[in-house]
Design goal:
Blueprint lengths: L4 E6 L3 H12 L4 E5 L10 E4 L2 E4 L6 E3 L2 H10 L10 E4 L2 E4 L4 H8 L4 H21 L8 H9 L1 H16 L29 E3 L5 H8 L4 E4 L7 H6 L1 E6 L3 H4 L9 E11 L9 E4 L8 E4 L9 H4 L3 E10 L8 E2 L3 H15 L4 E3 L11 H13 L1
Parallel strand pairs: 1-2, 1-10, 2-9, 6-12, 10-16
Antiparallel strand pairs: 3-4, 5-8, 6-7, 11-14, 11-15, 12-13, 13-14
Helix pairs in contact: 1-12, 4-5, 5-6
């Protein structure tokens, strides 16, 4: 018996929306459902005071894949936003990622050779300390970071921020979390190395709405409220939710970190002069402040809008009822995830996609690239 749809897509985020777009273009019958009241998942924006506010944290699209960039720009034109975050440590500001501007602000050095010498001196100090303790490989994030960048930058720009983000001391976090750090001996505050980056003109809702144009979508619908019905209406299911929930938590629950947002409308046109400000000292309870208008308003446009909207971000352990943001990819959780993945891999009509179903951190562009690859194949 022919079913009503070729694909039931559970979740209207970036993965589900890209998949629906590609399938719809191939003439497939798709139904997208989402338990939230809006489309877009975590990239959803709400217009407040004429400003597109990233309700689930800042998102910047960046890629070096020209095909991906042309695809998203065929749906909505992207602006010229360049991500150049600032770190604030006890009232003093530093440019990110680590570059010659940062090294001048940190030590007053003027040349790449001076900066390299300062970092190497501190790296050797960290290495000597480990050797004195009979250790040849970094045992934790703290040792790994100091081997990469030295004590000063670690203590001022990494330690406090990371411990707030993960809720654990850096000496208790695995070294692999910070295997690489972007270090540049040039004056370049562009956070990403990708060829292309920007924000959709009019916000990310424009991108999602364009992807889902012509695709049947139902909101405020929870797959698990009537699972038997949803499993029967389509040939295949694309599932983008939590994988442990899909299998009724039969092996136990995967762990996540979550983020709480404290939003405020300010009666001023410009609060911090930058979209992203990280607060790296432990005494400040939030990890960063996002000033949303700077994603889409540049130069004098900032002052044509008399108000601004900021969001303070607080990181914490995930509990039931909270939004799961970051997977805790330690040995225990990865072993648990693999048990669930083994179940999923035995199902012919189930496709998993996205950061929850795959229990890994994803930027947006790799998701789009991955989905495009599925349809290329």
């Amino acid at each position: 018996m022919k079913k009503e749809y070729d694909y039931l897509i559970v979740g209207a985020g970036i993965y589900g929306s890209t998949f629906a777009c590609m399938a719809h273009r191939q003439g497939k019958r798709c139904l997208v459902i989402d338990k939230r009241h809006h489309r877009g998942g975590n990239i959803y924006c709400e217009n407040i005071e004429g400003i597109n506010v990233h309700k689930y944290g800042a998102h910047i699209f960046h890629t070096s894949n020209k095909k991906v960039w042309e695809f998203v720009n065929s749906i909505v034109e992207f602006n010229r936003y360049t991500n150049s975050p600032i770190a604030n440590y006890k009232g003093k500001q530093y440019n990110l990622p680590f570059n010659m501007n940062t090294f001048y602000q940190m030590w007053g050095v003027l040349t790449p050779a001076e900066a390299q010498a300062m970092i190497e001196e501190q790296r050797q100090e960290a290495l000597a300390k480990m050797k004195a303790e009979g250790v040849t490989e970094p045992r934790n994030l703290e040792e790994q970071a100091q081997l990469l960048i030295g004590k000063d930058i670690y203590e001022i720009l990494i330690k406090g921020y990371t411990e707030k983000q993960w809720g654990r001391k850096c000496s208790e976090l695995p070294a692999f979390i910070i295997k690489r750090l972007p270090v540049r001996f040039v004056h370049d505050n562009n956070y990403f190395n990708d060829r292309f980056q920007g924000i959709p003109m009019g916000g990310f809702n424009k991108l999602i709405d364009g992807m889902l144009e012509g695709v049947e979508t139902r909101l405020d619908v929870d797959f698990f409220d009537d699972r038997q019905h949803w499993e029967q209406i389509a040939d295949k299911i694309l599932y983008t939710g939590k994988l442990d929930e899909y299998y009724g938590y039969r092996f136990g629950k995967l762990e996540y970190r979550t983020v709480r947002f404290e939003e405020e409308i300010l009666d001023m046109p410009n609060f911090q002069g930058n979209a992203v400000m990280n607060f790296t000292d432990a005494e400040v309870p939030y990890t960063r402040i996002i000033e949303h208008k700077h994603f889409e308003m540049f130069g004098e446009d900032v002052y044509r809008c008399p108000k601004t909207v900021i969001s303070r971000e607080y990181s914490s352990e995930w509990k039931e009822g909270m939004e799961p943001y970051y997977s805790v990819n330690d040995e225990k959780n990865m072993s648990l995830y693999q048990q669930y993945r083994d179940l999923a891999d035995r199902e012919e009509n189930l496709i998993l996609g996205g950061h929850l179903a795959e229990y890994k951190y994803y930027d947006m562009a790799p998701i789009v690239e991955k989905v495009m690859g599925l349809f290329d194949d």
